[in-house]
From TrEMBL:
It comes from Rhodovastum atsumiense. PROSITE patterns: GH16_2. The keyword Transferase does not apply. This is Family 16 glycosylhydrolase. GO terms for molecular function: hydrolase activity, hydrolyzing O-glycosyl compounds. Keywords: Hydrolase. Residues 415-460 are annotated as: Disordered. Belongs to the glycosyl hydrolase 16 family. One of its GO terms (biological process) is carbohydrate metabolic process.
Length: 563
């Protein structure tokens, strides 16, 4: 969930009736960055396009209730700084990062010193990292001033923008707030309206960016380059950040503060009675009011009118558990998003989501629904028939009459119906019927060698050679190997190339290296960028092989074996 629940250093309460619903908050409590909040870290050492600085994750520090991003000068004159973004990595897991489509963004920050040629950049930019613009800059610092900018694409597909300078001593703590609406963007500093952009408002989801910036000697609009000064170190600090989704309702201007809101927490409801359970995961995107809906099973409504509470933007879901005694066979579930007066203008995010359903603990395929107001959708689930019970009734016993003995002369010893003679050494008329353990039978599968294989042998399990459910082999030249939900083993050979293992679980799953010296293994944190996620990179062997483990932070040599 992209909301950190630690207490912020600012302390003021959030106005829950302001026309906004908070979907993202981080006050940087603790001693490390909340990775799920910030899927993209700009810190891989790459040189920025202006040639003036490199991103280095070592310039990021969290402690004392603040995020600190440093600027440090290298011996060659290049600067090092860093950046973070709440935009989710493309193709990453659900429920990471944070974004809004219209609403309020708040950042409280300060820099250690006002200088020419460097400073923080606080912004909103596309959640979809594959394109740019649009962008909203709350703060850039050219010429030791504040700069507010809105970027957009013109009708000819070209980049355009409008900027406004404003006076602010950004070396002191200030709260920067932008109210982003479908027709305008307004900047407030400490609750005071500072700049306004009418029109050209972005019309797609935007996420937060917090970046350090150093200008080059060709970017004189930013001021005299930093290298012309004797400064070798700067830093800026961020106290907290907040994203609030606009509900469509009227709202008051910001008061210059924000803290974690406790409104719109996920609901958990139990409805109906019976031994069977149908569990729905439901969420909403709001406009003016929470979505109301009904649930019917086979045309019969269960419960009354329900109200969604969980916000889809926050990665949450209400848990609605329906109880019943449903007969064996196919059943239809209908969800109806009730019509009301809050449909909203085009482009407003008013939606009801059925994200998942399970029946008696089993996932229901095809249950995901996305509904607009006054729309309905349905899916089906199957109650399996009860398992057939077969009872074998023994036949009534029939008394066996006692036979009348037939007198036999004492000289006759053979019975009247002699048993067949068994001559093991002879070759029977039907060779297949002979049981000759040392020979090869005509049908090898029918041969029985009692000393080696019992008539009903138990399966032989040899874990070191071939498990019953063999682990997937990891060939480094492959792209992605998925891990399952249980304990998985991945065989890794000494070969070149990189393989990604999705959902690897430290402490549960295992990397088993063959032909690899344990001393050649290196484990490093990979911090990703706009096209790759963060995670751990395991390098090994003599051929340049590596395994990438997305979103992993705790894999050690204890999660590996060597054969």
């Amino acid at each position: 969930m992209p909301i950190s629940t630690g207490a912020g250093t600012s302390g003021p309460s959030h106005n829950a009736n302001s026309g906004f619903k908070q979907v993202f908050f981080d006050d940087f409590s603790g001693t490390w960055l909340q990775w799920p909040n910030w899927p993209i870290i700009y810190g891989g050492g790459e040189l920025f396009r202006n040639g003036a600085f490199r991103y280095n994750a070592g310039e990021i520090w969290v402690g004392d209730g603040v995020l600190t991003i440093n600027f440090d000068k290298a011996q060659d004159g290049t600067w090092y700084t860093a950046g973070i973004s709440s935009a989710p990595w493309a193709g990453g897991p659900d429920n990471i990062g944070g974004h809004i489509l219209y609403g309020r963004a708040t950042i409280r920050a300060k820099v250690s010193e006002k200088v020419y040629g460097a400073g923080p950049t606080l912004l909103l930019w596309p959640t979809d990292v594959t394109h740019w613009p649009p962008e909203i800059n709350l703060l850039e610092t050219p010429m030791k001033s504040g700069l507010f900018t809105v970027h957009w694409t013109d009708p000819n597909g070209k980049h355009d923008f409008k900027s406004q300078l404003y006076d602010v001593d950004y070396s002191q703590w200030h709260t920067y707030t932008v109210d982003w609406m479908p027709d305008s963007v307004r900047l407030y500093v400490d609750g005071k309206l500072t700049a306004t952009q009418e029109g050209h408002s972005p019309a797609e989801p935007l996420s937060l960016g917090i970046m350090g910036n150093v200008s080059s000697d060709k970017e004189l609009w930013y001021g005299v380059p930093l290298n012309y000064s004797s400064i070798k170190h700067l830093d800026f600090k961020v106290d907290y950040v907040s994203l609030e989704q606009w509900t469509g309702a009227p709202f008051a201007p910001p008061d210059g503060t924000a803290s974690l809101s406790t409104t719109n927490q996920p609901a958990s409801l139990q409805l109906g009675s019976g031994a069977d359970t149908l569990v729905l995961k439901v969420a909403e995107s709001v406009y003016q009011a929470d979505a109301q809906y009904t649930v019917k099973v086979d045309g019969m409504q269960v419960g009354g009118t329900l109200t969604a509470q969980a916000l889809e933007q926050a990665g949450d879901a209400d848990t609605i558990t329906l109880h019943g005694d449903w007969a064996a066979g196919l059943h239809t579930v209908e969800i109806a998003f009730l019509a009301d007066s809050h449909a909203g203008p085009p482009g407003t995010p008013r939606t009801l989501y059925v994200e998942q359903a399970t029946y008696n603990g089993e996932n229901v395929p095809g249950a995901a629904l996305t509904l607009a107001p006054a729309a309905a959708g349905d899916f089906t689930f199957t109650d399996p028939p009860a398992a057939a019970v077969t009872t074998t009734v023994p036949p009534a016993s029939t008394p066996t009459p006692t036979p009348t003995p037939t007198p036999t002369p004492a000289a006759v010893l053979a019975p009247a119906d002699p048993a067949p003679a068994v001559t093991p050494a002879a070759t029977p008329a039907d060779p297949a019927s002979a049981v000759t353990p040392a020979a090869t039978p005509a049908d090898p599968a029918s041969a029985v060698t009692p000393a080696a294989t019992p008539a009903d042998p138990a399966p032989t399990v040899t874990p070191a050679a071939t498990p019953i459910d063999p682990a997937p082999a990891v060939t480094p030249a492959a792209s992605t190997v998925p891990a399952g939900s249980g304990a998985d083993t991945f065989d890794v050979s000494n070969a070149p190339g990189q393989t990604t293992i999705a959902n690897f679980q430290a402490g549960t799953d295992k990397l088993v290296f063959s032909g690899v010296d344990s001393g050649s293994v290196g484990i490093s944190q990979s911090l990703g960028d706009g096209t790759l996620p963060w995670g751990q990179l395991v390098t090994f062997g003599t051929q340049g092989g590596s395994v990438f483990l997305p979103y992993s932070t705790s894999v050690t040599l204890a999660d590996m074996a060597f054969t």
